[in-house]
């Protein structure tokens, strides 16, 4: 499988690139700076200089020729203000989807976030600051844009609080309902995402890789936190 990772130099993107290369996949990492190239090539990935805030869908689509799947793992990053949450986390995701459609790429995996349902309902918790609220609203809009596209087999993964602890390969996944039509099997009582709210970036990368290699995950929105199930088993539990 040939996969493009937008945000390939990000903390999750680098881990995903390593994971996919180790599985034998052909990986292309989109990065914004030439200074980031060596970090990715040392992992065995190819690199393309793409800036989703500046390049257009036509230019990006040229880099997607012959690609099987794209993963949007880009983000404005810590220290960025609310405006860049929109230009990267929303508009960048939509631009990648536009380019994927132009290039005939059928598979799109979006790294989103738990908490977007509150943003979609405009129910802001008291402890959420302006910038993080802008981030959640941008992610909600990116999800809505992707879910409306009929030419892309999409999967959305919503991890909880990300940590840099070493991954253990044990997670909890729960499908998020689409209105009154839940997608995927309901988990057994007590097995749904609930008590924990954190997950390691290592384990997020493992889940993204598993989702990419499982066509039946298309159309699923998945909450993800650390848990007690191996990644492949946790994913199998929620497949339709």
UniProtKB/TrEMBL annotation:
Domain NAD(P)-binding: 7-215
Domain of life (superkingdom): Bacteria
Region (Disordered) location: 175-196
Pfam families recorded: NAD_binding_10 (PF13460)
InterPro entries to which the protein is assigned, alphabetical: NAD(P)-bd_dom, NAD(P)-bd_dom_sf
PANTHER family, per database record: FLAVIN REDUCTASE-RELATED, UPF0659 PROTEIN YMR090W
Protein name: NAD(P)-binding domain-containing protein
The species this protein was found in: Cellulosimicrobium funkei
């Amino acid at each position: 499988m040939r996969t493009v990772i937008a945000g390939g130099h990000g903390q999750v993107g680098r881990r995903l690139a390593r994971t996919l290369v180790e599985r034998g996949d052909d990986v292309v990492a989109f990065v914004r700076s030439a200074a980031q190239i060596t970090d990715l090539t040392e992992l065995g990935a190819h690199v393309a200089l793409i800036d989703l805030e500046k390049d257009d869908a036509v230019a990006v689509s040229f880099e997607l020729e012959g690609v099987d799947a794209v993963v949007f793992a880009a983000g404005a990053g810590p220290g960025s203000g609310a405006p860049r949450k929109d230009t990267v986390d929303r508009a960048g995701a939509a631009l990648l989807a536009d380019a994927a459609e132009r290039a005939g790429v059928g598979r799109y995996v979006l790294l989103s976030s738990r908490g977007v349902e509150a943003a979609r309902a405009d129910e802001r918790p008291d402890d959420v600051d302006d910038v993080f609220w802008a981030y959640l609203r941008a992610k909600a809009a990116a999800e809505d844009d992707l879910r409306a596209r009929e030419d892309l087999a999409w999967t959305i993964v919503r991890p909880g609080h990300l940590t840099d602890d070493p991954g253990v390969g044990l997670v909890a996944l729960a499908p998020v309902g689409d209105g009154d039509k839940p997608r995927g099997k309901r988990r057994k009582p007590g097995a749904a995402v609930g008590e924990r709210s954190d997950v390691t970036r290592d384990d997020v990368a493992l889940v993204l890789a598993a989702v990419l290699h499982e066509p039946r995950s298309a159309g699923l929105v998945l909450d993800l936190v650390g848990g007690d199930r191996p990644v492949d088993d946790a994913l199998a539990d929620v497949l339709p």
